[in-house]
Every structure is written in structure tokens, then in C-alpha cells.
Design brief:
single chain; about 200 residues; alpha/beta; TIM Barrel; eight-stranded parallel beta barrel
Length: about 200
């Protein structure tokens, strides 16, 4: 199974197209407070070019069920990504995948499915302890996030052996401003590391 590469925090159609062309398997659209936040309407309009083979991920943080239902209707994401404990209070149709977020030093993954593992705060470029993450990566399908870049993603992949990798701030020229060249460089580096496994 090939490594999943997720580019997160997209706000512009050009960068969505570049990420798809470069080989991203998932694209994250942020609906939590962040320099990368978009409205459901913008997310829908910039992702209408995304093929069905690429997952469109709604990234939320402690949403109320009403907020999630509004997003579900207007954006129709393939995946919901939010903190693990949030899922207890949300009505999620079977058509939408669940990617719970587990944060370093808090609860540990207990799911056989896909999950995101990252630092205590999202979107801050915090690297997790990769040795500890490697132990956890034996359970389920870990998408490793936090502080990954084109320079360190190969080491992260070799150390942790995750199901996927997730990047946001390291493919930006400024907070919230994606850079097409950095997106391509990250995906190329991740794919090169995957071939060496």
C-alpha cells in the first residue's frame, strides 16, 4: 500500500491543483480558528477539481454537531478529522471517514482505522518524538503530523513507518500562504523515502 501524503490548510485553487498533480492522496481544509481557516463555500469551490481518488478532509477542532452538520451539507467532505473525543458528540454518516486526532502525551490510539498523530497544538510545526510514534504506528494506520518538512520527512518515514504523512506550515511561504514549489518538494521527498522502505 502506498504512503498517503496529505497537504493540509489549503485555501487557493491553484495550490489544490498543484498538490493533486504532485501526487497528494489527501487534501486538508481547515475550519478551526487558524490563519488557514476557510469557509465551507470556499472549500467546496476550490476543491471541485479534486478527483475521487484524492480524499477531501474537513479539519475541525471541537465542533458542535450543528456546525458539523452545516459543513457536511455545504462541503460534503470525504473525511472528518478532529480530536478523538469529539466524535462522541457528532452524527457522522457512514459515507464519511473518521480520522481521530491523537496528541502526543495525551490519549493513545486505540483504533484499527486511520488516525492522525501530532503534537499538543495543531499547525505550529511541533515535531513529535518519532521513536515513541514508531511504537504507536504498529496500531491502526497512523498519519504522522507535526513539524514535517521536505528536509526531515525521509527520516520520519524511515523511523516511524507511518501509513501516511501530513504537512501544513512547512509548505508555506508565510502563515496560511501555501507555496507550490514547497508542496512539490515535500511530496517528492516523501515518495523518494517510501521507495527506500
Amino acid at each position: 500500500m502506498s504512503l498517503l501524503v496529505k497537504i493540509c490548510g489549503l485555501r487557493d485553487k491553484r495550490h489544490v491543483a498543484d498538490a493533486v498533480e504532485a501526487g497528494a492522496g489527501a487534501l486538508g481544509f481547515v475550519f478551526a480558528e487558524s490563519p488557514r481557516k476557510v469557509t465551507p463555500e470556499i472549500a467546496r469551490s476550490i476543491s471541485d477539481i479534486v478527483p475521487s481518488t484524492v480524499k477531501r478532509v474537513a479539519v475541525m477542532m471541537h465542533p458542535a454537531n450543528e456546525e458539523w452538520q452545516d459543513l457536511l451539507q455545504s462541503f460534503e467532505p470525504d473525511v472528518l478529522q478532529t480530536d478523538a473525543e469529539d466524535f462522541d458528540d457528532l452524527e457522522i454518516p457512514k459515507s464519511v471517514e473518521r480520522w481521530p486526532v491523537f496528541r502526543e502525551g495525551r490519549s493513545k490510539p486505540d483504533t484499527p482505522g486511520t488516525y492522525v498523530y501530532e503534537g499538543s497544538k495543531s499547525g505550529r510545526g511541533q515535531t513529535v518524538d518519532w521513536s515513541a510514534a514508531a511504537e504507536l504506528a504498529r496500531f491502526g494506520r497512523m498519519v504522522l503530523a507535526g513539524g514535517l518538512s521536505a528536509k526531515n520527512v525521509a527520516t520520519a518515514i524511515q523511523t516511524v513507518r507511518p501509513f501516511g504523512v501530513d504537512v501544513s506550515s512547512a509548505v508555506e511561504s508565510a502563515p496560511g500562504q501555501k507555496d507550490s514549489r514547497l508542496i512539490r518538494e515535500f511530496i517528492v521527498a516523501a515518495r523518494a523515502a517510501e521507495r527506500k522502505l
